[in-house]
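call fold(seq) -> C-alpha cells
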Amino acid sequence: MAELTEAMGITKPSLYACFGNKESLFRKALDLYERDKLCYIRSALDEPTAKGVVERLLRGSLAIQTGATDPHGCLGVISAVACATQAESIRDEVIARRASSDAALVARLERAREEGDFPETIEPQALATYLTAVMQGMAVHASAGMSRELLEQLVETTLAVWPGK
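ret:
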C-alpha cells in the first residue's frame, strides 16, 4: 500500500476514502484488468471454429503475459496462488470470476462439438480444463521470466495437438 500511495501521490486515508478498503480496491483493479487486458476472451468465443477460439485465446494470453509495458504473468493466476488465508475473500473472488469464464468456454466448446469441430469422444469440460491449465502455466512461466519465444512454441505446440479442424 505504501508503494501504491507513493506512486499515486496520495495518502493512505485518501486512498481508503476513495476505494473503501483493500478488498474493494483490489476488486476495482480486477474489474479494470478484465476490461482492459482480458477483453480478447469475449471476442475469442465468437470465432467460427473451436480451433479459432483456442488460437485467439492462446495468442491473447501470450500478448498480455509478455507485453513490454506491464508486469509479466496474469493477475488472476498470481492472485489465486499468492493469496494467504487472511485474503481468502480475494482468492474466492478471483476463483469465482475464473469460473464464469470457464463456464463460457465450456459452453462454446460444447457447441463446437455439436457442430463437428472435434470428435464426440472428447469431453468439452476436459478440453476447457486442459486449455486453462496451458494458459495458467504460460502465466506462471511468463512471470518467472520465460522468454516469449519459448511461450510462442508452447502456443504452436498446443495448436498442433488440438483435436479436430
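The two ends are 48 Å apart (CA to CA).
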